[in-house]
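ok so for the tutorial part 2 we go from a plain amino acid sequence to predicted structure tokens. step 1 is just haveing the sequence, like this:
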Amino acid sequence: MPTRRGSIKLFRLLGIDVYLHWAWFVAFIYFTSRPNEYSNYGWSAVEILSLFLIVLTHEFGHQLACRSVGGKTSDIVLWPLGGVAYVNPPQRPGAQLWSIAAGPLVNVALFPVLLGLYYSGKSHGWPEHFPDAFLLVKNVAIINTVLFLFNILPVYPLDGGQILRSLLWFPFGRANSLMAASVIGIIGVVAMIAFAVWAGDTWLIIMAVFIALNCWGGLKQAQALAKIARIPRRPGFACPSCHSQPPLGALWRCGQCGNAFDTFETHANCPACGANFNLTQCLDCGTRSAMSEWQKPVG
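step 2 — the prediction. this is what the tokens look like for a chain of 299 residues:
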């Protein structure tokens, strides 16, 4: 996934930093130089910029929704395959569902705006007097629709796949829901790759391969979560974020000497080198909290 490394910081809005990955410029040159229906390539450039403006508002939807349920947000990175919003919602299915669904809902909110602009332009003679502007509005409306339909495909890690995972989380739990969503996603991405090859669409092939790699990563993560879920739990402690009890065993590793130990048994001290750790990571949700915050209240 793209990160701020190798990216240019564009601006900061609502406490969220927005970055542009260097590879974005390659995609921009590629798409703006292709044959199009506009009278000049400047309009094609505006169309690509409009595409990424829609992507950016979509990613802000994820970020702001995550905040509203008490989650943590970080950066937004725009790159050739769209955008990535780095969010960490609470490990609850409802919080995950809202954080993911808010992105596509931004596209839904844009539907009447773009359609209204299209029909208003059509009624005011734009096709005859301002053909490039009218074509731009039409294409941006189509782009918004295609982005929405593509994103809600039940293929992990697309929004649709993550929404499916969140819905399955309610009856089947965290690990099983991720496993099911990843398997369904792999089946879907195989069909996507086959279609991309049949259509000869190089960009779609690249996207499908990227999605396939993330599906595989999700499957491996689900297997790890299922393995952790089978380990007996330590009473008397609970994660402040997801409220799960920590597993028993030497499952934490010292960052200084590499020794594996049970941090709850040694009070966050490595028994080999004596290093003390201010924060303890939850193996279920990944949140790091002070040992004192892990104490489960009595009564």
